[in-house]
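ARCHIVE CARD
SHELF: 3
SLOT: left
DATA:
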Amino acid sequence: MHNPFFFYLSLVGFPIFGYILKMLLPKAIAFYSHKFITWIAIPILVLTSVDYQELYTNFWLAPLIAIIAVLVSAAISLIAIDLDKIDEKIRLLLRSHKFSNISGVNLGINHHQGTSTSHSHTHSHKKLVHTLWTENMQDSFLASSLIGNTNYIAFAIISLIVISSNTKDSLTYPILFDISSYILGIFIFILFVQTRENQKRTQGQNITQELTKAFNKTKLHLLNNQVFVNIIVCFLIGTVISFGVSFNGNNQGFFQEKLQGLVNITITIKTLIVYLYLIGLGTQFSTNKYKFAFKSIFMFLISKALIVPIMIGALLIMMEINPLLMLPLLIQVAMPPKLLDPQLSKDYKLLPEFINSVSSVGAITVMFVVPIWVSLYYL
């Protein structure tokens, strides 16, 4: 990277500037900046950053890494939930034992004094049996691990790296990664939930029926997600444009000169879009108090932004993948979650408090995690 200081300053400075604007300007700026990111910034970056030639070379790489990353995230998330549930049960048992001892002493005293404390005992007992890992909480945790597709943030960060260096300006592999991980993530999540519900009703279905039902539900959610459909359409149009530019670029004369002028204008517009994109991300930051314990959020982000990227990075090194392809894929894997599928959240009763909490905290950690990966890459 020729100008790492500019990259780090932009990655941190523009979102902070966006957050300051959010504090000074009307609250509607967060709403409109989200619309700008979703319907203007992302389509422009996708349309202007697809290289059709990369579809012929290592086409399999991004989908393969996406599949592995989703499966690893699912496994780590389920293990983390089970371990924390065990720890929670142990703590509840210890507290219950302590409560029983104290209650026994109090009951003896109250019996001696002729008073009753049954109501307070019942109230305290309800506090003790409260559990964090309800089914809705587990589903929210798993959904964020699998289909929290703020990987779109990576589009701006990868483009910022291009601006700060002479690397190739292409989002072909990141886009393929995002599409693949989103489709598989939704499918695994729906399959997990419906399998659990069938077990509760003791109405088992054969594997074929389970997979078919999950596939149909996944297809329905994909078609109803306008953001995802928008990405697919822009990717296809961008591929056609890339082919046309490459074909005309081989011709000499007037058309080549006009084409080069168009490319220069496109680069300028894209640079401006990236800066506005980062500012818009800053307006999405929230400092509201989080309803859920910081432990669960921290545990989630450690898994998503550190453990999974380390495992995927080790795999890419073992596969001897081109270093120019490694960094964009690592950045994609390390992106924080943000569910852009309101219908999915509604259908499966995901907890908006948890979803928003990990999204806000995760967006802030991006400013610290990504520089670490970029620095290690350029060592």
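SLOT: right
DATA:
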Amino acid sequence: MFAFDVSSFFTVRAARKNKGRQILNYLWVCHERPYALNFDAMCHVPLNAMDNVFENAKKYPDAQVCLWMNLDEMNDTTRYFVQSHFYLFAPDNVRLCNLLDIPAYRHSPMLKPNYEIPEEDGFICRPGTLAKVDLARLYVIKHCFETTSACDVFYSDMDVKDAQLNAPRHTRCLKTFGMVFAKTWDGIENGYMAFRRDSKGQAFLTESLIGRTEERLSKGLGGWHALKDGLDAWGKKTGIWLLQWRLAVMPIPHSGKPMEWPVSYQKMGIN
């Protein structure tokens, strides 16, 4: 049933060029243990999250949208559903990208499936997955700057309903500071971020944030404090006070719980 190989279709998709100045990145890290409420599900990647990515791509047709995954870490059934869902429903400006194409990701021992990191309570996932995402998303953004000519590179969690790429407050922040982040009721959040090429924001990413996040991950800690503390230090270095509060402009829902799985996918046994 699952012998159909659709890989050739993704080669065609990946070869298409987008002339937009914006890249919007999404990321899903899936190790052996499924990130799912239904552990008997056939697919360990939430297809409703992929649907949300596709809807955002339709809202911003001039942007290149990249959905980053490591297909080698998925079991055969999950890989089949992910590739089929992508081929059937993804708009033309979406690419399914392989995390292993990013040298920093491929060579990092901390991002290997068997590298164990203690996980926060309350999450149903393989230990350390969320902490690894904190670092992987930064490698994705840096890779986009190194391999494309995009001006603004965005990252968004897959459950953000509207990426708001062209919101005036985002444009102002990127023009003034070269970066923008999400906010929740208690401050800055790393579930949404963007950086502008050749700006202080890109310098903060490469000179401070990635290194701080790598250091915390090596100690079994997540990346949120690396962002918060890094921005405080960067603000003092550049003379911009209250920097993190000026940059936290994108409100996103963040319940600290796994994404809800649609009843339709559950009834079919997919998720």
